[in-house]
Amino acid sequence: MTRRVVFDCMVFLQGAANSDGPAAACLRLAEKGHVELCISSEILSEVHDVLTRPKMQHRFSALTDETVSAFLARVSRFALVVSDVPRVVSLARDPKDERYLDLAVAARAECLVSRDNDLLDLMDAQRPESQAFRAAFPQITILDPVSFLRAFSKLPSE
Question: Which residues of the chain fall short of a pLDDT of 50?
Answer without folding.
Answer: 157-158
